[in-house]
């Protein structure tokens, strides 16, 4: 994997998105900032690579909490100029946690501000290279990707991973997302990409293989929306488990009941009691090897 000398990938665990750090003649920049509980680590990593230089710009591909939860801390540390997707500007200005999904998913994100926006069709300079801003609806309706034709590198966020893509959250709330996900994959298919830097997981060069898996997965999910709903339920509990590492089994029903999006999914698809819903979600995480049961608690397994 060959990277330009002005780029550095900070690969993170699944609780936090990967960070992409740039240092060029136009200054330093970071793409995505991870989750709030990892913010001190994010600052330490960025400071290590920048040494004595400040962080000049922060760019978010989308505003899910695992991609922008470190924004506030980075802004306090460096007063960096922050750019967010244009469609999210009014929500951030008003700090509408319902519209921004933080309340719905039961996740934290400290309030942050922004200095400018990016939108599909824009061109931005990062690390001495021109990057095209591409729309990537599906996982999030306002997500963007960054593509550098010169280096044939795609920062795909959660639109394409080596083994799939992020949960299609709009569909969980009754909004369209399957067709948008497919259209985003078809857009990626038209690009000349040698290296994908995903929002989670290791960078990869087998782009055709990843696209084939992603197309197969969107076909599978779209054929029965219940499948996406079930996956979303598991992911939401897994995220909480990643954050806490250990949750008492007795606490899981109330914990899930306090997450509005889970209540919506249950009402639309599963129709389970709180206790049944908790047991259903626990069983599937354990069966997938993503969690275990130990001493009356649900424990994280990577």
Keywords:
single chain, 302 residues, alpha/beta, Metallo-beta-lactamase, Chain A, 2 domains, 6-stranded mixed sheet, globular
Describe this structure as you would to a colleague:
The protein is an alpha/beta fold. Helices cover 39% and strands 21% of the residues. It has 12 helices and 14 strands. The protein has helices spanning 39-50, 65-68, 71-78, 89-94, 102-105, 169-172, 178-190, 207-223, 225-244, 252-257, 260-270, 274-287, and strands at residues 7-10, 19-24, 27-31, 57-59, 81-85, 116-118, 123-126, 129-135, 144-148, 153-157, 195-198, 246-248, 291-294, 297-300. The protein has a 6-stranded mixed beta sheet, with helices on one face. Helix 1 (39-50) links the parallel strand 3 (27-31) and strand 4.
Please work out how many helical segments DSSP would assign. 12
Total domain count:
2
Q: Can you say what the CATH homologous superfamily of the largest domain is? A: Ribonuclease Z/Hydroxyacylglutathione hydrolase-like
Shape: globular
Supply Rg: 19 Å
Give the topology.
Elements: E1 7-10, E2 19-24, E3 27-31, H1 39-50, E4 57-59, H2 65-68, H3 71-78, E5 81-85, H4 89-94, H5 102-105, E6 116-118, E7 123-126, E8 129-135, E9 144-148, E10 153-157, H6 169-172, H7 178-190, E11 195-198, H8 207-223, H9 225-244, E12 246-248, H10 252-257, H11 260-270, H12 274-287, E13 291-294, E14 297-300
Parallel strand pairs: 3-4, 4-5, 5-6, 10-11
Antiparallel strand pairs: 1-2, 2-3, 7-8, 8-9, 9-10, 12-14, 13-14
